[in-house]
Amino acid sequence: MDRSSQVSSPDRQTAPQVPDEAATRAAFFEAFGGVRGMVETTVPGLVFVLSYTINRSINVSAIAALALSAVLGVARLVQRGTAKHALSGVLGVGFGALFAMISGDAKNFYLPGMLYTLGLAVAYLVTAAAGVPLLGLMLGPAFRENLSWRTRNPGRKAAYTRASYVWGGILLAKSAITFPIYFWGDATQLGWLRVALGIPPFLLAVYFTWIILVKAPAPIDVIAEWEEREAAREAAKRGEAPERGTAGPAAEHGR
């Protein structure tokens, strides 16, 4: 059997047994932005509530939070960080600042983020129930497995499904705590609550996801498989080239 047929065999790597903890850790940091991402998500909200508590000015507080978020985003880009993390933070704070200034209600600074959290919770739960867990769609590219977990790695699909339920449940609980304060509390209460609930639920979800995925089958590296197939094709082409080159002069000599 030639090498290319071995590489393309559908049974290859279908039941990996040993998960790579280093790869899991690296993929988590890539997908979720790591500690820096958590700080960048939380600090602008902290600046807003601190400023509003002191001066009671929505415009000043919103502009201060937006300016800080922009500085953090530019710093990421200058340091060649992931653009999606830099831009998502600025856009999130920007929408909040716009909502607060237009409505004249400081609580609306937090409304876009609250709606995003609620929508994300529903997305995690619905996609998990549908058999296409959102966490798998997010982490698949980071693990270089893309969507191979759907058909070739059932144990990993089950792990992604369980982890997506965990994320959905935690984010839904966070929404259940914050929305009543939005409707019946004041802006400072909501602001400090949002700051307090910024990092701990995220860390809890990441912890449980780590526990679930480390025990799951390792990802199938479909990128490596594709690279091997391409290398085999290139090697086969190079092997044919001398034969064509040798036949050419002989034919010319015969003529």
From TrEMBL:
Q: Which residues form the signal peptide?
A: none
Q: Does the keyword Ribosomal protein apply?
A: no
**Keywords in UniProt for this one?**
Membrane, Transmembrane, Transmembrane helix
Q: Where are the transmembrane segments?
A: 58-78, 85-102, 114-143, 164-185, 191-213
Residue stretches of biased makeup (Basic and acidic residues): 234-243
What name does this protein carry? DUF3159 domain-containing protein
Keyword Nuclease in annotation:
no
Give the span(s) annotated as Disordered: 1-20, 234-255
* Residue ranges with Polar residues bias: 1-16
